[in-house]
Hints:
Elements: E1 11-13, E2 28-32, E3 35-38, H1 39-47, H2 59-82, H3 88-115, H4 118-128, E4 130-140, H5 147-162, H6 167-174, E5 186-190, H7 199-205, E6 217-218, E7 222-233, H8 239-248, H9 251-272, E8 276-277, H10 279-294, H11 303-309, H12 312-315, E9 318-322, E10 325-328, H13 329-337, H14 350-372, H15 379-399
Antiparallel strand pairs: 1-2, 2-3, 4-5, 4-7, 6-7, 8-9, 9-10
Helix pairs in contact: 2-15, 3-9, 3-14, 3-15, 4-8, 11-13
Amino acid sequence: MKNFLKTTYIIVIITIVSVVCFCDQARVAARVGNSVITIADLKAAFTANKQQLQKSYSYTEVTTKLQELIDNRLALFDARKLGLDKDPQFISQLEDFRNGRVYMTVINKLVIDKILPTKLLRSKYQHDAKEFRARHIYVPIKDQANVSQNMQLLKDLRGRVLRGEDFDTLARHFSKDSLSAGKGGDLGFIKWGDRDWGEAFYQQLFTMKQGQISRVVQGAKGVHLIKVEQIREIPQIPFAQKREELQRSFYREKGKLLDSTFYAQVARMEKYYNLQRSEEAIDSFLVYIQAAKANGINFQLEPLRFLDSLAVQKRQMPLATFKKGQYTIEDAVKTFDKISERRRPAFVKKEALQEFLQRNLPRKLFIKYGYEKGYHLTKSVRNEVAEEKNRMMISAARQKGLGEI
Length: 405
């Protein structure tokens, strides 16, 4: 089976260069049967792991990545021909992925975007795209009484620099930064937020041009006079691909506000769908777990075996109901099965099961809301689902030894 489909594909390498700069992204890099791999596809492959994009790549890096794309394209052809995507388990896994993306879309729209708007994320994205080699003259502020004195000192030094005196020499003589004063105030290359100098320092630095002398800046712990020696661009992956990483960078700072906004949305969603939990069904679920244990079935380790042991009526017992839907014992068990064994809660006491439902019922409602709003049909979700489907099919083909030359 490994080779029986290979003769149906003709691979023609159109262009491989020692260095790829991605300047002509429509250009064809290879043909695999009737399918083409473009320079844009290569670029996407290099940024697929959300690492920073380099300006160029070596011959070996390009040919290795191109061969990987060719192998994947062959594996995908084989998987489609064999109908691997028709397998019920495959369909279920893909549906789980789609639900996850719909859920995250809802969370982004109702929670994260409210606290971390696109404007804020783009600002950080732009900051991450540059680093500055700078010098500074720094004087700490010990108390408010000497603020004006130190500000005036640096204003005087700024005037001397503008009149032609050497910044390096003045920094060695006047700067109180023990790490840089002996080097003429040289800070090396720094990125936004590298050091604890406060927002004002970086706001000033990132508006400056090469060779420019700053105004006197009051930072977090003192006052600075800055000179920019060099500005270096840092290649970035596209903003859309980096968005989630940018959001995570703010989670610690905005954590409490994000949590309160999330739980407020949970409350609104439960009210909107008129969520009703069934204490009777929850108690019955716990009884079923104990009965299964007496029969040698460990729910903690074998949730699906436990589910198979239940009669249909018991499996379909609703633990909670909501407008046009319900969350059954079967739903709970299948959700529980997807949790790694080490992280599964023990349903010995009712409180543990109630906490499990408190975490998972909102997800069910958010997903339902997302489908009602048509978020599963948005371009971003459809593209992500299509990419995941291809990845799963390639993986399935690999397991059967297909797609290799």
